[in-house]
Amino acid sequence: MSEPVIGIDLGTTNSAVATVEEGRPRVVPSRVGGRLTPSTVGLAPKTGDRVVGVKAQELAEVHPECVAWATKRFLGRRFTPELVQEAKGVVPYALAGGPTGDVRVKLAGRTVPLTQVSAMVLGELKLDAEAYYGRPVNKCVITVPANFDDGQRQATREAASIAGLDVLRLINEPTAAALAYGLSRGFQGHALVFDLGGGTFDVTVLEVTDGVYEVKATGGDPVLGGEDFDQRIVEWLLAQVEDDAREVVRRDSLSMRRLKVAAEQAKKELTEYEETLISVGGLGDNVRGSRKPVGLETVLTRAFFEQLSDPRYRRCLEVCEAVMKEARMAPGAVDTVLLVGGMTRVPLVRRLVADFFGRQPSSEVNPDEAVALGAAIHADELARQSGAALLLDVAGHSLGVGVMGGRVKRLIVRNSSVPVLAKDIFYPGRHGQTEARIPVYQGESDLQDENHKLGEVVLHDLKGAARGDTPLEVTFELSSEGTLSVRATDLSTGLAEAVRLEARPHLPGLEADRLSQEQANYAKKQAQEDAKRSEESFRKLLERGDKLARLLQQSAQENPSAEADAAVANLGALLETGRGALEAKDTAACAQVARQLNQLLGAGA
Ligand code: AMP
Hints:
six-stranded mixed beta sheet; Nucleotidyltransferase, domain 5; alpha+beta; Substrate Binding Domain Of DNAk, Chain A, domain 1; 15 helices; binds adenosine monophosphate; 3 domains; 28 strands
């Protein structure tokens, strides 16, 4: 049995894990039921025990100060006053800076690095996959938004490493989605991936030729997603609270959370119905000494929700326009439009997309599962080295060298296909210099101040000659995953320095080791509990299988046929194998029989 590999969509709001079985991608169900795992993490107030997903959402109802969600917005970024300000607008929890400038979140009195938060989500998905397969699962492909920069990609890798996962490759979410839509099977032309998820919006134009995917242009808005639409509803609800009570409600994080949950629920209902009733009671009851709690009961219609969300929809179209411009294409030239992300279920989103591109978008794949399914397809290809889909991605940001006058000389322009190698010659700033610092910037501006400095390469032992006699060759090598290696060579002496740029501060080594150990201990305990639970549920499954066998046998006797006999024999053999596996305590074999039985019993994923 070859080692299972998985694809993970580590989303802002929800995450999912998928795998390929018998050539078919399928979502791995979560151990607590359902197919998506909310990217929500909490620490229990007294014990500090970790809770992830739905359980963390439940904890947030009672202890919002112990729970964080949508932290992917801040993952791999630097802790700056601007980031704190940005966070204040979208999430109620407090962020803190780590010792090396990384971003952390305050949870239940502890300060937790965001890479650990992501690791907890990844760890949960790993456990789901291990329960599904009945054995360890380590290898995965993880998806990241197309506009993630190097630092954010590295933070994702760090999270995976804490979770004990071996990342075969990080791929862009839209590219994964296109794989899930099966574009490699005979499609030629331009595909547009419209991905509106819980917290991010990405638009990507892919050119597909002979099974080769080339990302022609990507764009998006990292802070536009379903949550912003929920927030519009929350603001509208707050506007209905009496003036003197409104501030009390705003200060009550528990009430605000309840309003958010109600808003999201209403939004989802409006996908099905023309109107919905929103009813939230006890608002403001957590503020000590406050006046009597207030309640809200109101009807929201789809038409009014569409009006409320109008600025957000317009923003979506602006992004589409910008991406089309970058791809130098007219919207009508797109051959297929693929919908990704739970928000694309919203009827107005579908209408707008259809109007803008002049064609109905494809929606055969479940939009919130497409990315995980595509990641699984690619993981399977990588594991089998089949190379069925050769992914050509592009650089999400321009990369260049800081030169005199505070300017940046670009070596790799945004949207260049990767992997890519670029070289240029620079000269020291002054005559007689013995050391040259070559700063590396990421961003679209010509000015250093408006770009993000990734780091620098330092060349020592220059001869101290005249500027023009010391040509320094700088080479940028951007890998297919978007990591940048920079090499500087003093062409007059041949001396060279190379760095792999760390775009963000890593967790201190000891801390990373400690977190990995913590995660491993947690996972071990969980896996033991899961194994016990799996054994019990497998016994029950076998009993259900026996019942089905009796029914099949009965109907084979009543209506004899070769097929009926074969079905009875197959099921009998499967149950026999299952019992043998149970006796031998062969968890992998039990899990395999369980998957087959679940499918036969119609409860399969
Ligand atoms: P994703 O990040 O792809 O899981 O998307 C999650 C976002 O999709 C959240 O904002 C959800 O509220 C939203 N969403 C999920 N299902 C629906 C639905 N049926 N109607 C409207 N929005 C939905």
